[in-house]
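hey can u check if this looks right to u? its 231 residues, i copy pasted from the old doc so theres a chance i mangled smth
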Amino acid sequence: MGEEVEVKMKVKLFGVWSSPYSRRIELALKMKDIPFEYVEEDLSNKSCLLVKYNPVHKMIPVLVHNEKPIVESLIILEYIDEIWKDHPLLPQDPYERAQARFWAKFIDNELLPSVWRTFLSKEEEKEKTKKEASVLLKTLESQLKGKCFFGGDKLGYLDIVANVVAFWIERVQEVVGIELIRQEKFPILCSWIERFYDVSIAKECLPPKHKHLVYIKARYEVAHGRNKDNN
């Protein structure tokens, strides 16, 4: 027991308050009741430790466990689940586990880039990009049919990964004035978002809304301006 506590106390998370990726790790650690030290990074002035622990990408999140760094949020989530067995995040069934990994990559590699293209698109492209993103959102929503959460009856690995849908997309669309997710079009997904917010530990791991909206607006204006310059 003493040894297990010792292992738990040697956990450090390097993140950024606004990042859904580092918020994923924070949520997983809290769901498993793992004590950790949080280190807030400034990506415009990266710390020596961040560069040391993630010399390839120099990005967050980085989990440091017993001085060994693990990078990239999906990999970190799996590492946490393998090291700390209590309250498993991934399904126990091998097929279901493989499916969860597939949909996690779908969210990060297909859905999010499509959504971001929609938010940054020129006026004449908005309908096309919005339709493409909506198709991907509907595809993801299909994985919730008959379930409370992607993980079944309780929050799990894929729900943690989908935190970007629960709060990031919702807040960005509020800033940019493009409504992608709405009750009439995505009733199952919207119900899931409500349930996500109802889980107190998940709600604790969301960035403060007003502060986050101000941050998103500033980032969007920079990105949108850059996108205009390139067209």
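Confidence is low (pLDDT under 50) at residues 1-8.
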